[in-house]
């Protein structure tokens, strides 16, 4: 049997009162983007759900595409039959038979068409009896059924719902404004980006690159990470910042044990400038409290001094093992563990200061042409539309 419809339901967005419409439209756009090239199907905006008319396409293929889209609470497959009782009976039976391992069921009919000659209660009874007569080993349980067979009588047709597929939850990307994600080639920052997207933030990534100390494969790795994040929120921009001269200046002019702190402060300053330019309202990083020297509270405090933009650290309280698990689930882990080093590892001291002080950092930085280095880096930013790149690549294949 083939289901003909997939119904997409949203959860939390329904609660957003007057903003409901814009949340809904954003979710619709995110869904549409993922399904754009499936020419056979049709999307319809409905009051409290999105309807996907499958036109012969397998629902699983569609569900797989959108199961990462934030804002979807659940998806439900359905068949559409005529309104006469005989069609409803046989349709309900087909749906029940499609589900394996069902021992108990109940029928929940609803009528959108109030002129329908039977009441919902009569329909429940009639369909229930028909199923009992035509199946073996299935009984009714109105309290805890394995399957709640939902039937919805519309104006001219009736919809019978089958299995429920869990959605990704969260809020649709694009419903919460923009943040700049500091994206290294590591395990943590892509996960941080995913978490921000989960709450509806649009993400643009920033990567600091230090050629020739870091090579093109390190950059490719970051591009691939950005591409992997796209399935959660559509197109993504990646800003690659040339950071070599800043790192050389820091290496040559700053005391060894403060180099890491000051490098991070430079990164954050540049990220803030890009945030202003790109109209982002915050910066996100993959930092997790206590994970490494740069992520002690003292370090975060000293690094954070250079910006008054909110710095979001969605992983701040997450253990590494749990971060790794999320990275595996979202498909970034295998990319992150490729061996190419990013700019930081190459220039950094073996024993960075774990408790840097703001006053010290400020004093050392007097010997650094900060503004000049920032301007030089910003002038060389290469912005890549990762979505476009992926499309172009697929066109070639
Ligand atoms: P990750 O796994 O994300 O690389 P990490 O455990 O290696 O994190 P750090 O190297 O201290 O931690 O980096 C902390 C955060 O600083 C990263 O999560 C990332 O947000 C940002 N960051 C580090 N290096 C870069 C870079 N080359 N470009 C952009 N952001 C960076
Ligand atoms: Mg790293």
Automatic annotation (TrEMBL):
**Pathway annotation from the record:** Cofactor biosynthesis; thiamine diphosphate biosynthesis
Q: Which UniProt keywords apply?
A: ATP-binding, Cytoplasm, Nucleotide-binding, RNA-binding, Thiamine biosynthesis, Transferase, tRNA-binding
Give the transmembrane ranges. Answer: none
Q: Which InterPro entries match?
A: Rossmann-like_a/b/a_fold (IPR014729), ThiI_AANH (IPR020536), ThiI_fer (IPR054173), ThiI_N (IPR049961), THUMP_dom (IPR004114), THUMP_ThiI (IPR049962), tRNA_STrfase (IPR003720), tRNA_sulfurtransferase_ThiI (IPR050102)
Query: Which positions fall inside the THUMP domain?
Result: 60-164
Q: Does the keyword Nucleotide-binding apply?
A: yes
Sample GO molecular function, one term = tRNA-uracil-4 sulfurtransferase activity
Keyword Nucleotide-binding carried by entry? yes
Q: Name one Pfam family in it.
A: ThiI_fer
Q: Where is this protein primarily located?
A: cytoplasm
Annotated Gene Ontology cellular component terms: cytosol
Give compartment(s): Cytoplasm
- Lineage top rank: taxon: Bacteria
E.C. numbers: 2.8.1.4
Q: Which GO terms describe its biological process?
A: thiamine biosynthetic process; thiamine diphosphate biosynthetic process; thiazole biosynthetic process; tRNA 4-thiouridine biosynthesis
UniProt: ATP binding residues = 182-183, 207-208, 264, 286, 295
Which reactions fall under this protein's catalytic activity?
[ThiS sulfur-carrier protein]-C-terminal Gly-Gly-AMP + S-sulfanyl-L-cysteinyl-[cysteine desulfurase] + AH2 = [ThiS sulfur-carrier protein]-C-terminal-Gly-aminoethanethioate + L-cysteinyl-[cysteine desulfurase] + A + AMP + 2 H(+); [ThiI sulfur-carrier protein]-S-sulfanyl-L-cysteine + a uridine in tRNA + 2 reduced [2Fe-2S]-[ferredoxin] + ATP + H(+) = [ThiI sulfur-carrier protein]-L-cysteine + a 4-thiouridine in tRNA + 2 oxidized [2Fe-2S]-[ferredoxin] + AMP + diphosphate
Q: What class of enzyme is it?
A: transferase
Q: Which NCBIfam families match?
A: tRNA uracil 4-sulfurtransferase ThiI (TIGR00342)
PANTHER family annotated for this entry?
TRNA SULFURTRANSFERASE
Similarity remark: Belongs to the ThiI family.
Function summary: Catalyzes the ATP-dependent transfer of a sulfur to tRNA to produce 4-thiouridine in position 8 of tRNAs, which functions as a near-UV photosensor. Also catalyzes the transfer of sulfur to the sulfur carrier protein ThiS, forming ThiS-thiocarboxylate. This is a step in the synthesis of thiazole, in the thiamine biosynthesis pathway. The sulfur is donated as persulfide by IscS.
Q: What is this protein called?
A: Probable tRNA sulfurtransferase
What is the originating organism of this protein? Pullulanibacillus camelliae
